[in-house]
Amino acid sequence: MYRHLLTILLFGPVFQVCSQKTLMKASPLRLEARIHALSRFGANPEGGVSRVAYSQADIEGRKYIMDLMKNAGLEVSIDPGGNIIGRRAGANNQLPVIAFGSHIDSVPGGGNYDGDVGVVGAIECIELLNEQHLKTTHPLEVIVFQNEEGGVTGSEIMCGKFKEEKLSYVTASGKTIRQGISDIGGDPSRLQEATRRKEDFKAFLELHIEQGGTLEKEKYDIGVVEGIVGIKHWRVTVTGKANHAGTTPMNDRQDALLAAAMFVTEVNRTVRSIPGRQVATVGVIRAEPGAPNVIPGKTELMLEIRDLSFAKVESVFEMIRAAGEKIEKETKTTIEYQPTNENLPAMADRRIQEMIAMSAKELGLTTLQLPSGAGHDTQEMATITPSGMIFVPSKDGISHSPKEYTSPGDMANGVDVLLRTLLKIDSGKL
Prior knowledge:
This protein has helices spanning 2-11, 28-38, 56-71, 116-131, 153-158, 177-183, 214-218, 256-272, 310-331, 350-362, 378-381, 408-429; strands spanning 75-78, 84-88, 97-103, 140-145, 201-209, 222-228, 230-239, 243-244, 279-288, 294-295, 298-307, 334-343, 346-347, 367-372, 387-392. The chain is of the alpha/beta class. Helix 4 (116-131) packs across helix 12 and helix 8 packs antiparallel against helix 9 (310-331).
C-alpha cells in the first residue's frame, strides 16, 4: 500500500501495469489507411513510390509522419544526423530507452511497404499504449532513420560509424548527403552530436516486411530474424586480347566476355552446390571495347556474396576463385579480384528472439527463424544495443517494386508481436 502511495507521489496518476493477455490489438484498417496516405508522397504511375532520400517527396512524407507522431503525444525532434525521434516518457526517465522504428525513404520505383510498415507500426504501438492508458517503466523512442536505402546513413550516424567523406556522395535525389541532411532538418556540421552511447539504449526493435517469399510459401505468420547477413563485393576483371571479330579464328581467341560468361555460370553452379542459405550474384558486367566487330579484350564484373556467416562468405569466394582458375586456362585469359565493400553480419540478440517467438505464440501465431538477406538499420543498431527484428510476409516475395504488398492483417500481427516484445523487455526480461 505504501509503495502504491509513493508511486502516486513520484509519478502522478497511477499507470497500469500491463497484462499482455488483455492488450488491445492493432487496427488493420488504421495501418492500411496510413500506408496508403504515406504512399501519396512520391507516388508513381505504376502504383509504387519513388520517395528517394532527401527528395521533396521524402521531405513531405517525413512531415506527414512527424504529424502522426505528434498527434500520438510523442515529443518529436530531428537529430543533427536528420533522424526523426519521437520520445514517450516512462515511469523512470533515468532508465535507458527502448527504441523501435524503421525508415520511409524508398528506392527509385519502389513499393509502399519496405520500411513504412515498421514506422507506421511503431506509431500504432504508441497509439495502443495511449488508448489503454499504459505507461512503460522505460522511456520509449520511435526512430525514423534517414536514407536507409542509400546505405543506412542515418543509423550509421547514430552509431558513430559514418565517415565524413561520405558527405560529398551524390544520392539518388541528385543531392549530396551533406545537402540532403540540411534539407531534412539536420546539421552536417554537428553529426557527432547525433551519436548515441550504448548506455542510452535498453534495446532496439524493428518491424519489417520480409522482402522474400519464405514466410508466405511455408505459411508462417511471423519471421523471427536470427541476424542480418554479411555482404562482400569484389570487382572482377577478366583480361583477354582484343582482336578483329571477322579475321580471328575461334580457336585462336582470348575472348574476355566469353570467359566472363563462363564465370557467371560457375558462380551460380558453385553456390547452388553448397547446402545453406548463401547467395551470390553478378549484377554488373561491362565489356570493352564494346563494339560488335571486336572480340572483347577486357570485361569487368561485380560479384556479391551474402550469408549470415562471414566465414561462409569467404569459403564460397574461394570456391568461386578455384573455378575461375579453370576458366583462365580454358580461355587463355586472366581473372583478377579486388574487394570493394563489405558489411559484417549483425546477429539478433538471442533473448530478444525468444521474446519475439513467445509473444507470437501468446497470440496464436506461427513463427519461423530465418536470416535477413537484405540490409537494415538494425545491423547498425545491433553494434551498440541488443537488437531484434520481426518479419511479416511479403506477397509473392516481391520487394523494391510497385507490386510489393503485405496484407493489413499481417501488418497488424507484426505490430501486436512488436508491442508485446517491447513490453517484455520493459518488464525486465532483458
